[in-house]
Specification:
alpha/beta; Rossmann fold; 2 domains; seven-stranded parallel sheet; 8 helices; 49% helix; 14% strand; binds nicotinamide-adenine-dinucleotide
Length: 257
């Protein structure tokens, strides 16, 4: 267990990829701060982890709000005195092409996905320097390749990928490694909500999900646990020689077309 005696902070940990990552980090021995805008959801995830014998606490955080992010980081320090790894994972989907997305929704994508990643990194990095720790962002395949109809979301994730590379360059001299995962289609409330909104019934919903998967060489949705496994890899010494990478976890989508 590479994360025993270590403290991990996971944002967006009440659901989907973040929830799976919090559990995977806990299984690897970490004390996990389960942080999410949904404070009750975060508490429920932390309570389940504690029931299973793991060390976990919850924090309500809005990653787009600097004071809230500072308080989250302080909560981790007050708890264990250290932060060794951060999964900056909180994010929202914003749909629409550049002609249809409103300026307000563009701004929302930027606030949560880009500024949220920036603020989480900014407040955690002084502690990661002390622990020679790791930072793993959740970007997206759309940070690396074009996809129709999600201009604001893709731009917000492009910023996350660029930030990951820049921070890797800036903090390598401190022994801090910074990477990002770039997931393809992972079945979570975030991805399902896109298709629920468009489908008139369950059959159409399932048909839309099927259309997504048809584009993937591996022909199935990814699970949150499969992304969590890669985040754990990037967060621990298993990946000791890797920094500044944006790692696609995408069932072959980007390389095998
Ligand atoms: N699901 C996919 O197919 C997919 C693909 C590529 C990238 N991603 C990215 O993975 C990350 C996790 O997404 P998911 O699919 O698990 O979604 P999800 O909706 O299941 O979970 C996202 C979590 O983030 C939280 N959150 C949203 N805004 C927040 C804020 N301002 N402050 C704190 N927490 C906030 C939500 O409450 C939720 O618990 C996101 O960054 C998303 O963009 C998802």
């Amino acid at each position: 267990m590479r994360l025993s005696e270590r403290t991990a902070v996971v944002t967006g940990a009440a659901s989907g990829i973040g929830r799976a990552t919090a559990r995977r980090f806990a299984e690897d021995g970490a004390s996990v701060l389960v942080a999410d805008r949904d404070g009750e959801g975060a508490e429920a995830v932390a309570a389940l982890l504690r029931e299973d014998g793991f060390a976990a606490r919850a924090a309500a955080v809005d990653v787009a709000d600097e004071a809230s992010v500072a308080a989250m980081v302080e909560a981790a320090i007050a708890w264990t005195g250290r932060i060794d790894t951060v999964a900056a994972n909180a994010g929202i989907m914003v749909e629409g092409s550049i002609l249809s997305v409103s300026v307000a929704n563009w701004q929302r994508a930027m606030d949560v996905n880009s500024t949220g990643a920036f603020l989480t990194a900014r407040h955690a990095l002084p502690h990661l320097v002390k622990s020679a720790g790791t930072l793993v962002f959740t970007a997206s395949t759309v940070a690396l390749a074009g996809m129709k109809g999600i201009a604001a979301y893709a731009a917000s994730k492009g910023a996350v990928a660029a930030l990951a590379r820049q921070l890797a360059a800036d903090f390598a001299e401190h022994g801090v490694r910074v990477n990002a995962v770039a997931p393809g289609a992972v079945r979570t409330p975030l991805s399902e909500s896109q298709f629920r909104a468009r489908a008139k019934d369950d059959a159409e919903f399932e048909a839309l999900l099927g259309q997504v998967i048809a584009r993937y060489p591996l022909k199935r949705w990814c699970t949150p646990e499969e992304i969590a496994e890669v985040i754990l890899f990037l967060a621990t010494s298993r990946s000791a020689w890797i920094t500044g990478q944006i790692l696609p976890v995408d069932g072959g989508l980007l390389e095998l077309r």
